[in-house]
Amino acid sequence: MANRCAKCRKYYACYLCHDALNMHPFVPVSLDTEETAVCCGVCLHQMTPAQYLHAHYQCPKCHHLFNAQCALHKNTYFC
Predict the structure, then answer these.
(1) Helix, strand, coil proportions of the chain in percent (round to 5)?
(2) pLDDT category of residue 52 using cuts at 50, 70 and 90
(3) N or C, which end of the chain is more exposed by having fewer CB within 10 Å?
């Protein structure tokens, strides 16, 4: 799974990876956006924040399980 930074609009595996490779900190995406902000690392299916949060820790397209621990960082990736 990858998350999109609202500032540079690029996907990264985590905010730490993003921050190590950019001159700005990771900026969370609004929970209300209709734009895609999460990408499945297996099938590359892109989801809005709402679609991701309602997917119950698995890709709605290929059903690959996401890391349930990612939910601990919800406030880092979404605002």
Answers:
(1) 30, 15, 55
(2) very high
(3) C
